[in-house]
Amino acid sequence: MPGFRKRSPTAPVAPPKAPSLADLIARLEANGRSVDRPFLEKVYAYSAEMHKDQVRRSGEPYLTHPASVAAILADLRLDQTCVAVGLLHDVLEDTLTTRAALEAEFGAEIAELVDGVTKIGKHLYVRKDEAQAETFRKMILASARDLRVILVKLADRLHNMMTLDAMSTEARRRISQETLEIYAPIANRLGMAKVKGELEDLAFFYLYPLQFASLQEKVDERLRVGKKGIAEIRERLVTALAEGGIAAEISFRVKRYYSIFQKLRRQGIDISELYDYLAFRIVTEELRDCYAALGVVHQGWRPIPGRFKDYIAMPKPNLYQSLHTTVLGGRGQPFEVQIRTREMDLVAEDGIAAHWRYKEGRLAPDGADKNVRWLRQLVEIQTEQSDPRSFLSSLKLDLYPDEVYVFTPKGDVFALPRDATPLDFAYRIHTDLGHHCTGARINGRLAPLRTPLKTGDIVEILSSPTRNPSRDWLGLVVTSRAKSKIRHWLNTQQTEQAIQIGRRMLEKELARHKLTLKRTVESERFRKLLAEEGLGRPEDLLARLGYGKATLAQLLPRLLSAEELQATPEPPGAFRRAIGRLLPSGAAAPIAVSGPGDLLTVLAKCCRPVPGDEIVGYITRGRGISVHSIDCPNVRNLLYNPEREIEVAWSREDGGVFAVSLVIETEDRRGMLARLTEAIAKLDTNIRQIEADTERPGRGDIEVVVEVKNRGHLEKIRKALGALPGVLEVSRRMSGSARGARALD
Ligand code: MN
Predict the structure, then answer these.
(1) N or C: which end of the chain has fewer CB within 10 A?
(2) In angstroms, what is the span from residue 23 Cα to ligand 1's centroid?
(3) Alpha carbons 668 and 698: distance in angstroms, whole number
(4) Is 631 a catalytic residue?
(5) How far is the CA of 66 from the centre of ligand 1 (A)?
(6) pTM of the model
(7) Which helix H or strand E contains 689, and what residues bound it?
(8) What is the DSSP letter of 61?
(9) How far apart are CA 556 and CA 564, in angstroms?
(10) Hey, CA dihedral for 290, 291, 297, 300, is it positive or negative?
């Protein structure tokens, strides 16, 4: 664009000159910080030694970088520990030093802080959308266990931005983007307006050089023209405040370039229409002087209505406090005036860092302290339980204790609840990825699906189109999203199965009446039945039948004509009665089936479960669900087909009697049978059947079928029989015979 740029834009912030040790000490002392000279000398020498053979891309010795970061930290008025960490912040990343070596040299605290800064740098931010950026910011805040780690990281980033010139165009863009989307918002959240503003202006400078140059020129031009007016206003302000007896410092500032840029773009206006791009700041010693100063300003200049804001009474979310007003200058140029106390000013500029230096690194253990409240709000502590006092006294952060942050191989980051597994992660990305998940690689290594994920893990999901969810997956996930997706899939499958069951039941029954399902479904009677039941599709009716919500006995008279019904060799409902024979007399099996509705349940004949037994359901082809004891050998053998397994539970512990077969091994004694029947009768128990067998020499094998109420009842009988003299063993028969096995299908 020829002629557009009259001159090169000036970088908005210049880096500090490579500070010497003496420099750093001077900065600390200037801010009233105590300095342990031998300690800092040692740290400085150590960093110099470790980085001695390295140079930055700019050609400068590497040490200039950590020393400058240390200087930025010192200028934030932080203490010498922070300054030391600034000096050492790259030794783990870029030199052969280990954490253990650092700890031996400088102690655990310094080693931990340096380690924390190193870890933050390891997460690679891939630009996506605002939600991704927010998750990434939270991850950074969460992975820093100590606030100082964040402060050092911000200083590190600030110095890198100040020296970005040396990097390639590509790297400049990427780092600037990351700064704008991740680090500047973090600085803002911590209330560090100055650091935030510098980061943003530098990123703006590198990302949008033309817009930056153009804006800088316009602002410079306006300042040049307005110079005289600004000086006049300043003089009048000084005089007016002095006359009002108000002790205050007056300064003048231009709004940050990036803030102006955003505001102009957002509101679609020109800089001439911007009211607050220049502002006077009045900093008082006392709070009451703020309001007095406001009076003075409004007396001297006409305030613009609707532009007064009292952030002292109503602080911003990051606890920024100040009075803002906009007034009309002598030449019709509006300008903003900000009025606040010295303390508010420090907090407004440096946020959490300001708070830090107030307390000399020791935060007041008083929960009622307004600064403590401020800190808590600022960092958005989310747990109610965490004791603010212990958290503050140890200076530890745990901002998002219930979350972990996990990456896809492409760099997308997702927040998941603690203990979430790769399966949760798969469902978080896409339902189909979850459904077909076969395994996972965590940080490049195959890992079991039940592995709890950790912040920073890179997770790759392996999948296969033939893989489908199974019921045990519900135990592998913690997110409600994954749970409901799995449940939904299982329920859909179950409905499919119920339709199959219903179809077979109806087909079989119709066949006995010499009718086909196809013709019946097309009949007028069928359509009418659907309409009366409020059902949409034929499948809905079949599903009802399969679930046992409707029976053949109820449906057939409505589906078939009287002649068709009578033309049957057997009356309808034979099927239902066959089931009835298996159930305890007069009572439906007290079984609750998990899932959407009541499926027809049948107690398996092979193992004859009784209430209290652990049970498992098996979806048969055409006969509802057969319920087995979990110990039944048939179940173990036949559940090769896991999707036909279904959860069942006893809905109550009583209700009817259940036949159980007991096998009793005895010595071959006379009167044994009589003693057994007597013992059983004493327990108020009916015997359905009893058989004795004395084929084995010296042994009696007796099988007795008893009617019990539940497992407790059964155990009583077993105990009583086992205690009889001559009884060697009492066991429950669980048939593994082919006949029993067929009963499953
Ligand atoms: Mn660094």
Answers:
(1) N
(2) 19
(3) 5
(4) no
(5) 6
(6) 0.62
(7) strand 687-693
(8) B
(9) 10
(10) negative
